[in-house]
Every structure is written in structure tokens, then in C-alpha cells.
Design a protein that fits this description.
7-stranded parallel sheet, single chain, 13 strands, Rossmann fold, alpha/beta, 2 domains
Length: about 400
């Protein structure tokens, strides 16, 4: 098989790592794969097609900021990519994030309609069936069910400073995305699958394939993290995100820091320079790291992992923590609860800081065994999950 994957990034971030890890398994099994991506750079040893340049990317951003037409820029870059895609002539096209200021969705779907090859589209968020945003559940918006207008998140990703084009974007996406005859939608969580069934994409075949992680790399590890950060006697409450904002729970951690005990220390991984400057003393801030071993060491050191996300699909951070033997506390939101049960973690009412404090206290009293955490994590071995994709490729080709 020849598989063409398309994603905003390659090799970093959750979706970028999914694309490259799947690539490696395909290659190992004797298949051919190429990853087309739009931003940043790709790891060595991966066959790629770069879509556009930094200038194309910035132009697409500017167009979005001014006119709220995210996904409809990058015309020249997309035409050049399509030429290369036709030369490669894949058997299956696997879409991941097609938002991210790098590709023109009209040209892309016209190409997919023209070649009539099977398409697998993994939805990592909700952008595909809204007129603007990638997440709406945490603000209680349901305009996406009938048709977006007057978007309450115009200033959220993908940010528009002036115009609200959500109504027209919704209509155009609905038309474009429903023109393919052989497309299967994949969601990493049951929660997202249920939303998609209610959307204008609901007539497509929808399959749930959970995210997986590399259990050879995410595992309990010894390190000097506590000593290096002067945390030897502290109860470590860990949070990890690639980008920290309100939806991911940054504000919740700031509130939590006011309520925890004197011997508790919050450690947040993934903060930017501005966030690092204004932290209270009981929060240790660390910049984003792509070093998996370093990340596994931090997970292994923590006493508890807290994921106060207000909306998420199927966060791999929960899985990574469990694979390192650390129990998880999460708000009852989205698909974040689908990898947790009472043997390895606790689920807290959404936005309840009091609930987080009580859950942390329960972890101190009730020791969640590493073996239970590892047992849950074993269900999400990435090779098992990616083999589901390979079976799906073969099925849609018939």
C-alpha cells in the first residue's frame, strides 16, 4: 500500500507524533508512506512533502485575521502540493488536521473528489464541522448543529480581528466535505464520535480508534528531577500541555495553587516565557519539551497528574502519565474520562477547584498502585491502535 498522510505538523505535537509513529509502523510492515505537512520541520528519515513556505503560512494567517476565512488561503502552495501528490499516486489518503494555516480545503477536496481514492480522516477536534472554532463544548455553544453565525469565539483560534465569516464558512465546509463517496471518519473518543453523528458529517461511516502511545518510551523511570528542582520532600502535582490556555486548564491551576497544602508543589510542563514570569511560588514552570525521555522522567516522579481540561478529545497526556505509573485526576469533560477508571484515577466535576483539592487528598490517603496504572495504559499501545488503521486502509481499498 501507498499511504499519503496530511497534517499541519510532522514529528512534534500530539498529531505530528501520531503521523510519524504510524509512518514507522507502515514502513516496518513493508508499506510505502509519505507525510505532507505545512509548518515547522520534519524529523530525519521521514519521506515528506512540505506544503508551502513561511511566507505562505503568514499570508494565510493574515487572511484569517482580517476576513475569517481560515482554510481558504494557501492557494498557490496547495496547487503545488497537489502536483506532487499526483506524482506519488497514493492508494489511500489519510487526513489529520487540515486546519493550521497551511492548505486550501477547497482545492484539497476538489482533488480528492477528482482522484476518487479512499480517504480516512482522523478528527482530532471539532473544526471540521463548525464555521470557525475547533472547540465549542466548554462554552456551551450548539450553533454547529444547525448552522454557525455570530461566533462567540471569533477571537479564539483561528482568530479573526474584524469579520465574522462563520455562517459562510459553515456552508462551504458542509458542501465540500460531503462530496466524497469513499471517506471514513475516525475519532479517538466515543465523545467526539457522538458529536460527529449530530453534525453535517453524520452520514459518513464513523469509527472510533483511540489514541495510542509508545509504551517502550513512556514507562516508569528513575531520575534526579526532584533533587534538581529542590522538590525532594514535596508532593508533586503535575500538569502537561503543549500549549497552556484557559481551555487546557491553566487558570484552574492558578486557582488550585491558592488551595493546596504547604507541602504540595505544582509542576507545569509546556509554559511559555510570559507564563513563566508570573507564577506563584508553589508552581514550578517548565518550557515545552520534545524530549520524550525527559517527559517520562517527570511523569514518573510526580505523585499525581492533574488534567483540568475544559474540553479535549482523547488526551495522550493521560495515557502517558498512566504508562509511567502515575494516577490521573481529570475534569468530567469530553473524552478525557474515557481512559480513566477508579483503579487508576479520579474524575471531578467540571471546573470544580474544590473537587480537585479533594481528589488530591484522596490520592494521598489511597495509594493507587503503579500496576493498576500500567494495566490501564497497556490498552493503549500505539502499535495496536495503528494496526487498526492499517486494517482500515485495507478495508476501504476493497
Amino acid at each position: 500500500m501507498k499511504i499519503l498522510q496530511i497534517n499541519s505538523v510532522c514529528g512534534y505535537g500530539s498529531t505530528g507524533r501520531i503521523a510519524t509513529d504510524l509512518y514507522k509502523l507502515l514502513e516496518k510492515q513493508g508499506h510505502d508512506c509519505v507525510i505532507a505537512y505545512g509548518r515547522g520541520s520534519a524529523p530525519k528519515g521521514i519521506r515528506t512533502i512540505k506544503i508551502g513556505s513561511k511566507f505562505d503560512n503568514y499570508t494565510h494567517v493574515a487572511q484569517t485575521r482580517l476576513f475569517d476565512t481560515h482554510g481558504f488561503g494557501s492557494i498557490k502552495a496547495t496547487k503545488e502540493f497537489i502536483k506532487k501528490a499526483k506524482e506519488y499516486d497514493p492508494d489511500v489518503i489519510h487526513l489529520h488536521n487540515i486546519h493550521g494555516y497551511y492548505i486550501n480545503i477547497k482545492l484539497l477536496f476538489n482533488y480528492l473528489k477528482e482522484i476518487q481514492k479512499p480517504v480516512v480522516w482522523t478528527l482530532h477536534d471539532c473544526w471540521s464541522f463548525t464555521g470557525h472554532c475547533s472547540h465549542f463544548d466548554y462554552i456551551g455553544c450548539d450553533k454547529w448543529k444547525e448552522g454557525c453565525f455570530k461566533c462567540p469565539q471569533k477571537r479564539s483560534y483561528p482568530k479573526s480581528f474584524f469579520l465574522d465569516n462563520s455562517k459562510n464558512n459553515y456552508r462551504r465546509k458542509n458542501e465540500l466535505f460531503n462530496e466524497l463517496k469513499n471517506m471514513t471518519l475516525v475519532t479517538p473518543s466515543k465523545w467526539l464520535a457522538n458529536l460527529v453523528k449530530e453534525s453535517f458529517l453524520g452520514d459518513y461511516n464513523i469509527k472510533v480508534i483511540n489514541n495510542g502511545i509508545n509504551l517502550e518510551k513512556f514507562k516508569p523511570l528513575l531520575s534526579n528531577f526532584r533533587r534538581k528542582n529542590n522538590l525532594d520532600d514535596k508532593f508533586i502535582i503535575l500538569g502537561v500541555a503543549s500549549v497552556w490556555d484557559t481551555r487546557k486548564g491553566f487558570d484552574s491551576f492558578l486557582e488550585l495553587s491558592k488551595c493546596i497544602e504547604k507541602n504540595d508543589q505544582i509542576v507545569l510542563v509546556g509554559l511559555n516565557d510570559k507564563q513563566l514570569k508570573d507564577l506563584p511560588k508553589n508552581i514550578t514552570g517548565i518550557k515545552r519539551t520534545n524530549n520524550i525521555e525527559e517527559l517520562a522522567e517527570i511523569y514518573s516522579t510526580a505523585d499525581g497528574f492533574v488534567n483540568p481540561t475544559l474540553q479535549d478529545n482523547f488526551p495522550t497526556t493521560n495515557l502517558e502519565s498512566l504508562a509511567c505509573g502515575t494516577p490521573v485526576i481529570t475534569f468530567n469533560t469530553g473524552g478525557s474520562v474515557e481512559s480513566i477508571d477508579q483503579s487508576c484515577g479520579l474524575i471531578v466535576e467540571k471546573e470544580s477547584i474544590k473537587g480537585l483539592v479533594e481528589a488530591i487528598s484522596r490520592i494521598k490517603i489511597k495509594s493507587f498502585s503503579k500496576s493498576n496504572c500500567l494495566k490501564m495504559a497497556s490498552q493503549f499501545d500505539m502499535n495496536d491502535r495503528f494496526n487498526e488503521y492499517i486494517k482500515l486502509y485495507k478495508k476501504v481499498m476493497k
